[in-house]
Every structure is written in structure tokens, then in C-alpha cells.
Design goal:
Elements (H helix, E strand, L loop, with lengths): L25 H14 L4 H17 L3 H15 L3 H7 L2 H7 L11 H4 L4 H16 L9 H15 L2 H17 L3 H15 L5 H17 L3 H8 L14 H15 L3 H21 L6 H19 L3 H18 L9 H24 L6 H16 L8 H5 L4 H14 L2 H4 L1 H4 L2 H23 L12 H5 L7 E10 L6 E8 L7 E7 H8 L4 H17 L7 E5 L20 H4 L1 E4 L4 H4 L11 E8 L12 E2 L7 H16 L3 E7 L4 H5 L10 E5 L2 E3 L26 E4 L3 H6 L11 E3 H5 L8 E5 L6 E4 L3 E4 H8 L3 E5 L3 E2 H14 L6 H15 L10 E4 L1
Parallel strand pairs: 1-4, 4-5, 6-8, 6-9, 9-13, 13-16
Antiparallel strand pairs: 1-2, 2-3, 7-17, 10-11, 11-12, 14-15, 16-18
Helix pairs in contact: 1-2, 1-23, 2-3, 2-7, 3-7, 7-8, 8-9, 9-10, 9-11, 10-11, 11-12, 11-13, 12-13, 13-14, 13-15, 14-15, 14-16, 15-16, 16-18, 17-18, 20-23, 29-34, 34-35
Length: 841
């Protein structure tokens, strides 16, 4: 199953007096009502109808893959024979969702139903396609599924749903920038819908048709259709209809160079959108899609008239509207909401960045580009809950812990994880629905008690104020599309406190960098990084030596500390390097965590279950052999920290279990420091693997990247070596999936003393999707991780040095740099023993 539910992101945040008995839990009850209808269906006809209705329930809540699967099952029950289902559902869909032939049941009852069987089948296809178009892996098949429904609608004589399907297909074409095809689909939808559509439905179809016409430059045709749309509010108009029409009228005015009229229309549309989005459920994103499309079209029209400044202003107003509406909800997004929002936001973000690149020399463009990057990170990478003192201090709320426990019981099961290998989807979909309902209940619970909106700050000028040292250089790496050929390219925005604007520095394309990082020749890899990444940004340092790096994408896995410069020196010998996730972390003061009794939890020397025989100096990450230095590391660190007055709790041997780790989330306060000394793992995805075991010769068939990244604890060897099925609570493999749903809001530092813990799947807008993302989302403020395999002995050596140097109320970075410097002196010609450690603040 390609969509995943990661747990309640904001559980354990805030305390109010309301007890579970007092909560009405409307979303949970609505979910159970829908499931009950499905379970009590007396025959195949009713069951097929309730499968479809359950799919609609999921679609309305952003559970697009679940909606597509349910609709596909409904189609199977409504199909008149096996041959038709195999043709209409497509081999790709069947393969992706692993349908078995025995699942494609058909009952004679279907033909006896009062509802037209063709209509039911067509509706199921339409819902399948609508869900699939939200999935990047299956999106390409949505067009054919939509078209498969058309013949069924014609046979059913259902003009209403036939028109709806054409509208949805037109939306698909529009998103794919196939505007000529979109025009045909919307025109057909309007023609079919003239009689059955309600006024607002017809108006929405016309608005989309008009936008496609404007995209194609057919302004006269667009104006003609636009004349048929009311200019004033009516009781039956939707919250989007009038605003979309206003933006379209603004576009026509722009092409006539009537800029005053265009600006007036856009201003009113902007005000109405703000009201709409402030009152909307932020996981229902149709309003947001129309908002992006409408104002982007206005910006493009200004650009066509070479009014670059006005185009820039339009994009800036769009961003301001987004910040002042959805930005308030950032702390309450669960992962599914972020994923769905990103699918809408990413194309708009890419367009803004490409626009800025195209006119990079225009006044204000570098600042605009920088601000966009900060917005992307704040929406999709940060955990704003850690900045709210109330949320942190009151994390032990009883009711929220109960919700979290209920969700864990549903989702952390073997069946839930192995569903994509078993083909038995329905039980897991129902559990996913229950999990999502619990998440929605948690959101409603917190929103009802927290009156402290999150402040989303992205302006370059605000970040500049944090650069107080004359010696510091800020380097924000970004990934964008080149204006000339569309290739993905890395670039940097570099500035100091003496600059009036960031310097835009184009770097290398993504694919050459990927090839270089896969190069087994270390010298060639080093030379590529120096020539194509470091030297271009170094040209803007002006002799300064403190470099703050904010990596993204593939740049997140480069060990810059151990790169050798053209001066034949390690970069860490020439510069003071700092690695940070988001520049706005510097601006928003984190809630300080320096309790009088500092709690420290150490995990290490786990009993993995293999024979204690071991290589001379084992590497953390190469199989789960016992790590002799891990025991010494934990003992040494424990002694050091106890001498500093810390309350130290050690979990080692058979006590270093998954359940012990997860129970940290149930405490009133999570530990101040969490140190894990063990093996780490990251497995690339292989879609051809259908075995239940997580590890298949260094790869995995699990789609979810959070399941393919993790840490080994007691008992892990059996699940790893024997390819046993993944059993999350008890297999000894602590995955990023499990960590994601925890609460570590009182944890100032997580130290992952293991290999590859900084790695993971690289995702647009979401950074490294692995342990780094999981611990950050759980609330941890700072992390020490590794970017490659590191030997057991030197790992223990490095970690002990770090804790010896760290004084809790002083900079962790100072202690980290001292430890790294000492290790470099001892192993100067072996950077793999010290350069792969990274502190992310």
C-alpha cells in the first residue's frame, strides 16, 4: 500500500481538564458508523455500494490511496465478468495493488439491483482514478481509468456523473499542463452538465474551462465564456466560484493592459480567499488548489506582458495569504496532511523558484527565492510544537496518551505492515480509517484548547538579523528546475551581515551529483564536490571562516567536514562548519530545556541474538554482530554524565528493547538526552520484492521509507537474518516509522551512535525521509548522526570525547568540534573515523 499513516504527530502536546468520557469524538463515531454499514451489508450489491461510500469517506479526508483501493474493489463487485475487470482496471493497477483473481467476484444479485449496474461500475472507476491521480506512482494511469468510465456512463444514460468525470479528467489534464486536452474535457463537461448540474457545479466547470483557455492564450474565447458567469454573489455560489472568476477577469484585464482593474479584482479575490481558508478544514484542499491555480494564472499573465515586478508581487501576495491562513495550523498537521499539502504546494513552489531563476537579476528576486525555501521548510520539515512552552511542559495529557495507545494497537501490527505483500487490503484500510479518525480527534482536542497560533516567518531580512558575527556566512542550498531545459539543479543563496541581498550561486545538476556520490573512487568524488559545490560558494565568503550550512536533498549526505580543499586541507581545518536544518530556527527562540535534574537515557550493548563471535573491529551497520565497544561506550558516558549531576538510566543487553524505547514516549517528560549506541540501517526500495522480510540482500520491498530506516535493538538479528516478517512491536528493529509517532518534546539532544543514521530516502520538499525526519517530528531539538558506516571502536571513542567536552549550558557545537578535532589528530589520514559524524542543530 503506497500511502502510509504514521501516527498522531501532535499527540502528547497539551493538557486540558476534559476527560475521555466527556469527549463526543464525532470523527471517530463517523468512522465507525461507515465501517459498520460495510460490515452489515446483506448482499454483494449493498456491499459494493458501501465500498464506494467508504471510498468517498476516505477521499474527503485525504486518504487517496485507500479511496482508490476501495473503489477498485467496488468496481470488481460491480463488474459483469472477469474479462471486463481485467481490461478496465488495467494490469498496472492490478499489479500495484496486488489484486488476486479470486478477489474479482461477481454476484448475480448485481444485475437484479434497482440501480443501473453500468452507473455503479462507472462511478467506481471514476473514484479509482480520482484517488490514483494523487499518487505519483499511479498517476499516469488515471487518464485511462477515467476514459474507461465514459462508456459505462453512456450505457447508463447518466449525464450528471458523465459530466463530473469529464470535469475531473479536465483537472488531471490541467495539472499535467495539457491545456488543449483540458479545454476539450471542460467544454464537454459544461455541455453535458447544462441540465443536470446545479448552478455552482456548472460555474466551477466553466471557471476551469476559462483558466485552461487563458493558459493556451485564447483570451477572446475565455472572455466569451466568462461573460456567462455572474459577477455578484448568489445564495448558491460556492466559496471558490466567484473568486476564481475574479482572477480570470483580472487575467483578461492584464492582457488588455488594464492593470488598475486587474489589481482591484485580485485584491478582492485575495480577501475572499483568506476568509475561505481561515474557515476551512485544512485537510480538505480543493479551495487551496483553486487558490494556487487562479493566482498563478494571474502571475503568468503579468509575465506575458513583461510586467515582472507585478508578477513577483502576485506570487508574494499568494505566499502571504498562505502564511496568514494555513500557516497558523502548522503545529497541528499530521503527516498525511503534510503529504497532501505538499502534493499541491510542490508544483507551485517549483514554478515560483523557476520564475525567480529566470529573472534572478530583477530587484528582489534572490530574497524572494530565499523566502520560498524557508516557507517550504517551515511547512514540511520543522516541528513547531517544540517552540511552544505550553505544549512542551504539558506533554503528558492522559486523554491524548489514550488516543496514542489506541492508534498503536491498530497500526503497529504485522498485518498492517505486510498488507502490500498479502493482498488482503480491506481489513487494513478499515484500520487506517480508524487510525486517521483518532488523529483527527487529537487535532480537534488540541485546537479546542490551544489559543496560541504559530508564527511562520520566512523573510530574508528577518533571518539576516540573526547573523550577528562579521565572520559568519550563511549558505542556504536549494533544488530547483533550470529555466532553459527543466533539469533539476542545485544552487545556493549565500550572504553575510554586510550584504543587502543573498548572492545566487548556480551549482551542478542533480544527476551528475548523484553519479559522483555513487562513485567508488573517493578522490574523484572529493574533486567533484570541491569543483562543483564548494568552490562556487567559497568565492562569496570574503575571507570569513564561520560557515553555516543548510543542506537539502543529496547535499544532506555529503560529509563536508572531511572534504579536502584545493589547499590540500580538510574543510574543517580551514573553516568552522555548522549544520542546521532550517534558518528560522535561529529566529524563533526554542523553548530552553535545562532542567535542574537532567534526565539521560542510554541504550547500548544490545543482545541482538547472534553468536558473540565478532570481527576484530566490527562496523556498526554490517549485520547485527555484538558491538564490544558499545558496552564500554555506554559505561564511559554514564560515568561522565553522572559526574556532571545527570540522572542516568541505562538500557543494555536484553533490556535494550523496542518496548523500553517506546515507553519513553509515555513519560511525563521525555529524557533531556537520549543516546543510542547500536547498529543502524537504511535499505533502498525494490518494487520487485514481495517477501515479507524487511531485509532482502540489502534491499527491501516495503514502500514506506520510514520502515526501511532504523536502529537495531535486542533480538533484531532474527528478523534481519532470517527474513522474518516485520512485526513492529517485538522484532527488535526500531524503525523510523515507530519513532515518528512518539513524543520527545522534552528531549534536547538525540545521539545516534550508529551507522547511516543520517541517511534515508531523499524526497522533494521533505528532506531526508528517515531517522532524521522521524526524531525531528517527534520533537527532538538537536541530533548527532552519521552519514556512513563507522567502526565500533572509533564511534565509542568519539562519543566519549563529546560528552567529556559538553557543558550543558554551553554550545553543543563547541563540544562536538573539539571531539572531532581530537579524533582528527589521532586519525588524520582516516577521515572515515571522524568526518562522517554530523551535528544537526
Amino acid at each position: 500500500m503506497t500511502r502510509y499513516i504514521t501516527g498522531i504527530l501532535i499527540l502528547l502536546l497539551v493538557s486540558v481538564a476534559t476527560s475521555q468520557a466527556q469527549r463526543k469524538e464525532p470523527e471517530i463515531k463517523a468512522c465507525e458508523r461507515q465501517i459498520e454499514k460495510l460490515k452489515k451489508a446483506p448482499d454483494d450489491v449493498t456491499f459494493a455500494r458501501e465500498l464506494y461510500n467508504t471510498g468517498i469517506y476516505c477521499l474527503d479526508r485525504g486518504m487517496y490511496d485507500e479511496a482508490a483501493l476501495l473503489a477498485s474493489l467496488a468496481a470488481a463487485f460491480n463488474a459483469q465478468d472477469i474479462d471486463s475487470i481485467s481490461k478496465l482496471l488495467l494490469p498496472a493497477l492490478i499489479q500495484s495493488f496486488s489484486f488476486k483473481e479470486e478477489d474479482m467476484k461477481y454476484s448475480d444479485d448485481v444485475a437484479k439491483s434497482s440501480e443501473n449496474a453500468y452507473s455503479r461500475l462507472a462511478k467506481a472507476y471514476t473514484l479509482t482514478a480520482e484517488g490514483m491521480k494523487h499518487n505519483a506512482c499511479l498517476r499516469g494511469y488515471a487518464e485511462q481509468i477515467f476514459k474507461s468510465s465514459f462508456s459505462q456512463y453512456r450505457l447508463a444514460a447518466n449525464d450528471y456523473m458523465y459530466a463530473v468525470a469529464h470535469t475531473l479528467l479536465g483537472d488531471y489534464y490541467y495539472e499535467e499542463k495539457r491545456y488543449a486536452d483540458a479545454i476539450k474535457s471542460f467544454k464537454k463537461a459544461v455541455s453535458l452538465g447544462e441540465r443536470p448540474f446545479l448552478e455552482y457545479e456548472l460555474e466551477e466547470a466553466k471557471n476551469r474551462w476559462i483558466m485552461a483557455l487563458i493558459q493556451q492564450g485564447k483570451y477572446k474565447e475565455a472572455e466569451k465564456v466568462l461573460d456567462g458567469i455572474r459577477k455578484t454573489d448568489t445564495p448558491t455560489r460556492t466559496i471558490t466560484g466567484l473568486k476564481d472568476a475574479m482572477c480570470s477577469r483580472a487575467c483578461i484585464a492584464i492582457m488588455k493592459k488594464d492593470y488598475a482593474t486587474a489589481q482591484s479584482l485580485c485584491k478582492e479575490a485575495d480577501e475572499r480567499y483568506r476568509k475561505s481558508m481561515n474557515s476551512m478544514n485544512f485537510y480538505r484542499l480543493n479551495v487551496l488548489r483553486n487558490f494556487f491555480d487562479s493566482f498563478t494564472l494571474v502571475a503568468r499573465c503579468y509575465e506575458r506582458q513583461n510586467e515582472i515586478g507585478k508578477s513577483l508581487q502576485t506570487y508574494q501576495k499568494m505566499k502571504a495569504c498562505l502564511i496568514h491562513t494555513l500557516g497558523l495550523y502548522i503545529p497541528y498537521y499530521i503527516d498525511l496532511d503534510r503529504t497532501n499539502l505538499l502534493s499541491l504546494f510542490q508544483p507551485w513552489y517549483d514554478e515560483m523558484q523557476t520564475f525567480a531563476y529566470r529573472y534572478i537579476n530583477h530587484e528582489g528576486m534572490p530574497k524572494f527565492m530565499y523566502s520560498n525555501a524557508q516557507l517550504m521548510k517551515q511547512f514540511f520539515l520543522v516541528s513547531p510544537a517544540i517552540y511552544n512552552e505550553k505544549m512542551v511542559a504539558m506533554q503528558g495529557d492522559k486523554y491524548l496518551r489514550q488516543l496514542s495507545q489506541r492508534q498503536s494497537e491498530i497500526m503497529l501490527t504485522e498485518d498492517a505492515m505486510n498488507v502490500h505483500l498479502k493482498g488482503d487490503y480491506l481489513p487494513n484500510i478499515l484500520n487506517s480509517m480508524r487510525s486517521m479518525a483518532l488523529s483527527r480527534e487529537a487535532v480537534a482536542y488540541v485546537l479546542g484548547s490551544v489559543q496560541e497560533p504559530y508564527r511562520c516567518i520566512t523573510e530574508w531580512e528577518s533571518i539576516l538579523k540573526t547573523v550577528t558575527s562579521k565572520e559568519e556566512v550563511m549558505v542556504e542550498f536549494i533544488l530547483l528546475h533550470r529555466p532553459d531545459n527543466g533539469a533539476r539543479q542545485y544552487a545556493a543563496l549565500v550572504f553575510t551581515n554586510a550584504d543587502k541581498s543573498p548572492h545566487f550561486v548556480p551549482l551542478c545538476d542533480e544527476e551528475p551529483l548523484r553519479a559522483a556520490l555513487n562513485d567508488t573512487d573517493d578522490d574523484q568524488q572529493n574533486d567533484f564536490i570541491v569543483k562543483n559545490i564548494w568552490n562556487p560558494i567559497q568565492a562569496h565568503f570574503g575571507g570569513r571562516i564561520v560557515i553555516s550550512l543548510f543542506p537539502t536533498g543529496l547535499l544532506s549526505i555529503i560529509p563536508f567536514t572531511g572534504i579536502v580543499s584545493d589547499n590540500n586541507l580538510y574543510l574543517c581545518n580551514e573553516y568552522g562548519l555548522k549544520f542546521q536544518l532550517c534558518a528560522t530556527d535561529r529566529l524563533t527562540k526554542k523553548y530552553n530545556l535545562y532542567p535542574e535534574n537532567k534526565s539521560v537515557v542510554l541504550f547500548g550493548a544490545a543482545d541482538y541474538g547472534l553468536s558473540p563471535s565478532k570481527p576484530e573491529n566490527p562496523v556498526r551497520g554490517q549485520g547485527f554482530h555484538y558491538l564490544p565497544s558499545s558496552k564500554k561506550e555506554i559505561a564511559s558516558i554514564s560515568t561522565v554524565l553522572k559526574e556532571k549531576g545527570c540522572l542516568v538510566e541505562v538500557f543494555s543487553g536484553r533490556q535494550a528493547t523496542e518496548s523500553a524505547f517506546r515507553r519513553l514516549s509515555d513519560r511525563k517528560e521525555s529524557p533531556f538526552v537520549l543516546h543510542i549506541s547500536t547498529h543502524g540501517f537504511y535499505l533502498p526500495y525494490d518494487s520487485g520484492i514481495k517477501d515479507k522480510g524487511l531485509n532482502q540482500e540489502g534491499k527491501s520491498g516495503y514502500y514506506n521509507p520510514l520502515l526501511r530506516t532504523g536502529l537495531a535493538l535486542s533480538g533484531a538479528s532474527k528478523a534481519w537474518k532470517d527474513s522474518a516478517s516485520l512485526n513492529l512491536p517485538n522484532d527488535g528493529l526500531l524503525t523510523a516509522y515507530e519513532i515518528f509517532g512518539m513524543s520527545l518534546l522534552n528531549t534536547d539532544l538525540v545521539v545516534l551512535s550508529a551507522c547511516n543514521t543520517g541517511l534515508g530516502e531523499i524526497r522533494d520538499g521533505e528532506g531526508v525521509y528517515g531517522l532524521q525526519r522521524a526524531f525531528r517530528s517527534a520533537g527532538a531539538r538537536n541530533m548527532i548522526m552519521t552519514l556512513a558506516e563507522v567502526s565500533d571502536k572509533e564511534t565509542a571513542e568519539f562519543m566519549t570525547l563529546f560528552y567529556q567536552n559538553w557543558k550543558f549550558k554551553t554550545s553543543k557545537r563547541v563540544a562536538f568540534v573539539k571531539a572531532q578535532g581530537e579524533m582528527m589528530k589521532r586519525h588524520h589520514k582516516e577521515p572515515e573515523k571522524w568526518a562522517y559524524f554530523v551535528l544537526i542543530e
